[in-house]
Specification:
There is one protein chain. Helix 1 runs antiparallel to helix 4. The protein is an alpha+beta fold. Strands 1-2-4-3 form a 4-stranded antiparallel sheet. The protein has 4 helices and 4 strands, in the order αββαααββ.
């Protein structure tokens, strides 16, 4: 599972905390862990916040990258949370993707083998 190492645990926490931090007031966040075919897992973090421009989603895995809305809502952020999560996923053979959520915000999904992460 994706929380077997401190690094993957921290990256999962970064994604969930970002969903809460950058959501709208009174918004909702869901964390869903489920098995998928072929002995794999899917860990999804969804929010119903304002979202960001879909073109900017892929850029958020770059170190220091922040969406314009994030600069306004939380000016003290450093743009490292999503970068750390992406690199941790890469190091352990997992995949981290982002897309607009059907609920109006962002959906971040971590996928990989359920047998556990490889040594990093």
């Amino acid at each position: 599972m994706p929380t077997r190492t401190p690094l993957t645990s921290k990256s999962n926490s970064n994604v969930a905390c970002n969903a809460v931090r950058y959501n709208r007031s009174g918004g909702h966040v869901a964390v869903i862990l489920e098995p998928t075919p072929s002995d794999r897992f899917s860990l999804r973090v969804l929010d119903d916040g304002p979202g960001i421009d879909p073109g900017a989603l892929s850029r958020l895995v770059e170190r220091g990258a922040r969406a314009d809305q994030a600069r306004t809502r939380a000016p003290d952020g450093q743009g490292l949370g999503r970068h750390i999560a992406y690199r941790a996923a890469e190091l352990h053979g997992f995949r981290l993707t982002s897309r607009p959520s059907e609920q109006g915000g962002i959906e971040v999904e971590l996928t990989g083998e359920r047998s556990g992460p490889r040594d990093a």
